[in-house]
Amino acid sequence: MGANVAVEGVSRGYGAGASRVVALEDVSFTLAPGSFTALLGPSGCGKSTLLHLLGALDRPDAGRVLVAGRDLARFSPGEEDLYRRRTVATVFQFFNLLPTMNALENVRLPLLLDGASVAKADARAKEALLEVGLEGRERSFPYELSGGQMQRVAIARALSGSPELLLADEPTGNLDSKTGGQVLELVARLHRERGLTVVMATHAAEAAAVATSVLRLRDGRLEPRAS
Ligand SMILES: Nc1ncnc2c1ncn2[C@@H]1O[C@H](COP(=O)(O)OP(=O)(O)O)[C@@H](O)[C@H]1O
Ligand SMILES: [Mg+2]
Questions:
Q1: Atom of ligand 1 nearest to the CA of 50
Q2: How far does the centroid of ligand 2 lie from the alpha carbon of residue 192, in Å?
Q3: Cβ(128)–Cβ(160) under 8 Å?
């Protein structure tokens, strides 16, 4: 099931003095459990910064980020580790597969790191690869796969641990439009079937259209919601 998300008055900047860049400024919104939201805006508007905060990879300078009612900045190191392993999963523009591992090994790795047995991790990884349409490609290495197939492996890896929140950062940014469209359809189907909460950053309005709601960012600020 999906987690609810609350972002409350969040600001984040980089650097100091004249070279200070404000990446996010007083951003607030809430997301219902099981919602699919696109974060739409041009390069540099703060999308990745916001996803990093949602993934507990970074902390805001001001404001709070709550997932499933829990303030991410108040996690103990152990809780933060569990959050990253169990609650949240991320898909990236450049797939971030390990080149020396085949598809099955890439998908099962986080399960093994989370303490699953090899047999259980293999079974779940195979299921996840089947779910994204890659049955028969378990032994293929990333260099033997197309961009769309690599992104499917990355999606299978993200979903194999049954996260409550899926973050996707420009997941079609490195794919041609047809392949990108198929990946977006896959994300939309997995969202429907699994009911997890999805937040997808994109600079492309066509990609944002598959989401059920759109948040527009410009220069680190959220634009008022058009209803
Ligand atoms: N680690 C960093 N150090 C300095 N500036 C950064 C860093 N990360 C992002 N920025 C700046 O913050 C702003 C927002 O970046 P980012 O969140 O990556 O935007 P987007 O993902 O929408 O392209 C940009 O001006 C970017 O240059
Ligand atoms: Mg980005």
A1: 17
A2: 25
A3: yes
